[in-house]
Structure formats: C-alpha cells, structure tokens
Amino acid sequence: MRVKFHGAAGEVTGSCHEVEANGHRLLLDCGMIQGSEEDERRNFDEFPFDPRELDAVVLSHAHIDHCGRLPLLVKRGFKGPIWTQWATADLLRVMLEDAAALAEMDAERDNRHRRGGRGNHQPLFTRGDVGQVLRQVRGLDYGQREQILAGVFITLRDAGHILGSASVQLEALEPGGRRVLAFSGDIGPRGTPILRDPQPVPEADLVLLESTYGGREHRERGATLREIGEVLEHAWTDGGNVIIPAFAVGRSQELLYWFARQWDEWKMSRWRIFLDSPMAMKVVEVYGRHESLFDEDAQRVWNGRPHPFRLPNLHLTPEVAQSRAINDIRGGAIIIAGSGMCNGGRVRHHLRQNLGRRQAHVMFVGYQARGTLGRRLVDGAESVHIFGEEIRVNAARHTVGGLSAHAGQSGLMDWYGAIAGRPPVALVHGEDDARQALAKALEKQYGAQVTLARPDMVSEV
Ligand SMILES: [Zn+2]
C-alpha cells in the first residue's frame, strides 16, 4: 500500500490523499481549498490524477475542505462509490448544494463584471454535479467493517469532530501481507458538546494524523464557558449586538446547545437570538435525524427544557428579507451567521452594520484561516473592506478558543498513543509551526517516526 499526498499537506484546507491498495486506487477525502481568492482559484486546477482511474473515495466528514471538490471529481469522470458515515451522507447534500449555489453565483457575477457582460466563466460545479455525487454515496455505521474493493476493507470510527465525522481504518490484504492505514480525519476534543469522544483506530502500519492545533492546547472548557458568559454580560451592559460568525455545521448547533444548558446562568431569556443561516437551519434538521449518535449529556439536554433548537426567543430567518430586517436592530440581539471565517455569507452584512459601533461585540468561536476576513479581524485590523467599502473597526472583538472542533496537542497525542505498536506518522492538515511542534512532542513522548507530508510526497505503508 502507498499513499500520495495531494492536499492539506503543509496547509489546513483541501484535504486529499491518494491511496494504492491491493492494486486499486482510491482517495481519502476530496476537499476544497479555502482561504484567499488566489488560494481558492486553485480549486479549478486539474486533479493531479485521472478521476476516471479511481476505484473509490472514502470521505471522513462533511466539512467543505474535506468534501468540496467531490462534484468536480464526478464532473471530470469519477464513477465509483463514495463511502462515508450515514450522517455525513445526510450532511453532504446540505454542504454541497450550498457550495454549488455559491459557485454558480460566483461565475454569474464574474460574467456580469466582464466588459460587455459577455463572460464565459463556468462555475466550479453545478447542482447537477452534486446530484450525481449523492447517487454515488454509500453509507456506513461506525464500527462496521466493509469490503469496499477486492481485498480492501474500511472501518469508520467516531472522530468526535462534527456529526458523522470519522477516522478511517483502511486494510489491504496484499500479496505481501496485510497492511493497515489509519487516517485520523479531523479529530475533535474530548467532551465536545453533543458528540461522543473520539475513538482511536486500534492498530496501523502508518498513521495520517491531522495537526490543526498540534502546537497548542485549548483553554479548559469551563473557562471558555465563563468567557462566553462574560462577553454576553458585557455586551448586554454596553447595549450592543453580539455577532457570532459560525460554521453552519457543528458550531451553530453547539452554541444553541450551550444557550439551552446555561439558560439561567447567562440570562439568555433577555436576548433576541437569531440563527441567520439557511444552511445551519437545514443542518439542525439533520441533527434531529441522528440523535442516536449524540452523547449521554446531549440526550439529557434534548429531553429537557428549553430544547436547544426550540428556544423561546430563537428566530430562524431563512428569507433574505428577514435577514435584512435584523439590520434595524442596534442592541440586544445575538446573531449567529455564516460563514464561519467571514469570507462569504450573511455574516458580512451584519459585520458591515455592526463593526463601526463601539457597543457591538464580535465573538469568534472557530478557526480563522490565513487570508480570510475573520483572520484579519482576529489579528486586530483597524479597518477592513466589506463589499468594497472600508469600515473602521470599533466593535469589541473576542476570540473564544476553547470551543474548537479540533483536539489540541494532548488530544492528538492521546489519540495516537492508543494505537498499538507506535506506527510511523505522517502529519497532515496543519500549518508548519503546528506540525513541527506536534512532531517534536510525538518523537519525545512515543519515540514515533514522524514526517511532515508535502504535496506529491509518497509514503509506503
Ligand atoms: Zn473538519
């Protein structure tokens, strides 16, 4: 078995690894590159392999940086099955349909802006391509060992990162013997709300390990919750709105979960809460269909009052006009809107309205990649451009790190430490400083043989 690294090898987004196993070729993930406009143009590039020659895809989870180029893969000739956990299959529809709508809008805008309005930009993919992806998806339960190709088996284990997220154990019964590859996917921290804790793969000959937060620990969860409580209290006293840029999958639902759990403590009933993300609303429905995957705490909260997704002061605003109406509110509103890194979506309208106000607060609760508006705000930019307009930033900014959907260094170490035999590791899905720090820690504590994956690098399993 061999692995060739194509994406998220030296960066965080664009997860994509090609595996040769028992004479078959398959892909682990087929993610989109996210970041600056220049970075994102790379999504139009040819794949570094022929999609028609792939036999299967195994998808770790539904985040767009892991699944976002699947429609393009299909459009360019991939006909095989796409194996993934059932809940991921369900989320995939929501994620990819949204991505296709954005791609179609982008192409249309580019064409309009061309001289004479006669551009011929094609969207990266269309809703038709997404439909084809969904027809090729095959669902699996966690722990179900499935032969996906002759002599090639996969088992998915709960990665505790988002609903349906999985680590992949890939076994190949090759003429030279049985070889096992473990692909971590994205690993969540222990105690993530709603989800169960990550389950390690029991054994492997090579591990592909994510390293997003390989160089640091998150704040302890109790401290994080106190911090959110303080921001809300502060904002209430200031009389402003609270804008929370949040990914539609995971973070938006978690916030509602915390609001329900801390209902009295945070005096949540005094706020008007807006979930201003049509996609997050669809994801809420998906969560409702997979409650059996929730951990025990969440099952208890779901059976109590208030129900996280039916808070009495929660306003869902699917229509654009409803979203616009929020612009008139100058204080007392908590607005959860996407995109999580502020590089698109309705949150940009709310930032445009609120960033200039001293009494407003922006609370970042997720990772902000380089080159995004969110990253510039977190890094303290005094002014930013939104819709071509320069806006001075007077609002208070808070970075609440402890809610991350990614394990910190010790979580990644523990996940690796539970795999029998201390196999060699290739670090993926992290910026270089994070990977170097994690490599050092793995070498020191476990004597592990660690490499930092680079594009086009090949590792033998
Ligand atoms: Zn992810």
TrEMBL record:
Boundaries of every Metallo-beta-lactamase domain copy: 13-218
InterPro entries reported in the protein's UniProt record: Beta_Casp (IPR022712), MBL (IPR050698), Metallo-B-lactamas (IPR001279), RibonucZ/Hydroxyglut_hydro (IPR036866), RMMBL (IPR011108)
Keyword Hydrolase: yes
Coiled coil: none
Domain Beta-Casp, first and last residues per copy: 252-377
One Pfam family cited in the UniProt record for this chain: Lactamase_B
UniProt key word Hydrolase: yes
First and last residue of the signal peptide: none
GO molecular function ontology, one term from the record: hydrolase activity
Keywords: Hydrolase
Database matches in PANTHER family: CLEAVAGE AND POLYADENYLATION SPECIFICITY FACTOR FAMILY MEMBER, INTEGRATOR COMPLEX SUBUNIT 11
Name of the protein in its database record: MBL fold metallo-hydrolase
Organism: Arenimonas fontis
